[in-house]
Amino acid sequence: MNGMVIKASPSTGTANSILVEQTFQKGGTTGLHIHDQGDELFYVVSGDGLATLGSTIKEISAGDVIFVPAGIAHKIENLKNSLPLVVVFFMDSPELVEEFRAIQKRTASQPDKPLTSEELAEIRRIIGGSRVVEMQIK
Q1: Most buried among 8, 34, 83, 87, by the most CB within 10 A?
Q2: Could you give the 3-state DSSP secondary structure of residue 64?
Q3: Structural contact between residues 97 and 49, judged by C-beta atoms closer than 8 angstroms
Q4: Phi and psi dihedrals of 105, rounded to 5?
């Protein structure tokens, strides 16, 4: 459901940084999660959606930049828009690089099978640093 392309990572020459472009079709979401190992920046390339940061939910659109400090629950979603939401994520963390690499490897190996929340939780458990938040923030 959510197309993910790693644009820059240690395999392309960065030390620890990662730049990921993700496309969210209607109904697509990252799920609510926390990165303990580093800050994250989002840049909205195109489309409209919602960003949850802690207890705040805000509408986002092309050109917006969102800063997420380490340890803050967050998610990006395109719940109702038929046009895709395209977001670029930047992180400077070796663990996040490994997490995104594992997610991309799994989705590339089984492109017709959506990544389940259980698979994502297992990837995060193995790599460490990120965690899924069970509660829903309204």
Answers
A1: 87
A2: coil
A3: no
A4: -60, -45
Separation of alpha carbons 77 and 93, rounded Å: 23
Spell 35-50 as b/e; 16+ CB within 10 A means b.
bebbebebbbbebebb
Q: What is the pLDDT of residues 87-129, one digit of tens each?
A: 999 988 767 767 767 776 787 788 788 777 788 778 777 776 5
Strand order through the sheet with 40-46: 2-8, 17-24, 85-92, 40-46, 65-68
Question: Is 77 strand, coil or helix?
Answer: strand
Residue in 24, 96, 35 with CA at minimum distance from that of residue 60: 24
AA identity, residue 40: E
Task: Give pTM, 2 decimals.
Answer: 0.74
